[in-house]
Amino acid sequence: MSRNADSLRGYYRWHAKFYDLTRWAFLFGRRGLVETVAGQIEAPARILEIGCGTGKNLVTLAEAFPSARITGLDLSSDMLDRARAKTASFADRVDLLHRPYDGPVSDESGKFDLIVISYALSMINPGFDEVIALCRRDLGEGGVIAVVDFHETRWTWFRKWMGVNHVRMEGQILAQLDAGFEAVVRRIGRGYGDLWRYVTFVGR
Ligand SMILES: C[S@@+](CC[C@H](N)C(=O)[O-])C[C@H]1O[C@@H](n2cnc3c(N)ncnc32)[C@H](O)[C@@H]1O
């Protein structure tokens, strides 16, 4: 496993304990992403969330798309333990995969109609660009990618502080998504006035 993956696993060993109690206050746009996607894609049969964490989006996705088979993938077993408990009532159609996203997930049973990545790409450094490229291989024809994540900040101290928390906030994600996908939705939101900006991107 890469150094980045190792250090994220260590980070989430501790942070998993209070993740859900704290992240609502700054991981903005997660529910909005699923609502936006639901307006763009009717009934995806197979959905993948890369970096599903404690499973908040898996539940929202399962409710929004009642006929979908959903896979949540994450490199942290501590986060997945929480996701398993949270998605227990959807266990017949939500699968959890413990691994880094460093190779395709789709197999002979088919590719994905929708890939969701919520606040994971900004933590994958190096390698966020490879992850975006890999999504192409896991998406079926006409498949949709939906991303919400930190975008940028004009405050150097805040960028540095987020760096301490493994988050890179330099506008790098949107640039790469624009290069690889045709945007259907491309929205910039603001956190706490203009302390930071976050991006919502849905593309084909
Ligand atoms: C900030 S959390 C986001 C969790 C969830 N998507 C959400 O919106 O609440 C980032 C998650 O991505 C996972 N992650 C980071 N890099 C990854 C990689 N290369 N492969 C799989 N999971 C990864 C981390 O373990 C962590 O659970």
For this structure, the CATH topology is Rossmann fold
Small molecules bound in the structure, each named once: S-adenosylmethionine
Q: Give me the secondary-structure category.
A: alpha/beta
Oligomer: single chain
**Average pLDDT score:** 96
State the total count of DSSP E strands: 7
For CATH, the homologous superfamily is named as: Vaccinia Virus protein VP39
Q: What's the total helix number?
A: 8
Q: Main sheet, how many strands, which sense, barrel?
A: 7 strands, mixed
Approximately how much beta-strand content do the residues carry? 25-35%
Topology as a string of helices (H) and strands (E): HHHEHEHEEHEHHEE
Global outline: globular
Low-confidence stretches: none
